[in-house]
Amino acid sequence: MSRLTLPVVLLRIFLVALFAFLLLMQLLSLPGQFVSGDGGGEYAHLGWVLLVAAELGALCLQVVIVCTWKLLTAVKADRIFSESSLGWVNGIVWSFVAGWVLLAGTAAYLVVVIYFSPERDPGIPVLLFGMVLVGAVFVLLVVVLRALLRQATELRADMDIVI
């Protein structure tokens, strides 16, 4: 366990910094970024859609941070291969799934709005499609890692019975 002490401490420091950063973004930056005081003209509704999507996306990341913190506590106590750890991993998986659904929905809405606009710039839809693909790969990677943790937990339980 001593090999993991430094990385766990560093990861906890960065998790606290990221959580504080996300909280500041949610409270101070995002509302000003997406909803301006001048009304925004014809596309004013996009600001509100983007604000809600960004706030909920940040909330999903905060849930992931809390679940990761609890998993780090289990690592430190040498309880990572237990059923209780799988609950925190499930929290991470479902947060990523919710974030991906949010991203895909927002991207689809933006593509529709861009398609019906006079400019029809294809750059943003292509970028959004790439982001949705990367998000899908990441979500599926986390699901595979969860399955590996479940297998390791079952093997550990079997070994404990034998010993």
UniProtKB/TrEMBL annotation:
Highest taxon above the source species: Bacteria
Keyword Transmembrane recorded: yes
Q: Which residues cross the membrane?
A: 9-28, 48-72, 92-116, 128-149
**Keyword terms, alphabetized:** Membrane, Transmembrane, Transmembrane helix
Q: Pfam families from the xrefs?
A: DUF2975
What InterPro entries does the annotation carry?
DUF2975 (IPR021354)
Report whether Transmembrane shows up as a keyword of the record. yes
Name of the molecule in the record: Small-conductance mechanosensitive channel
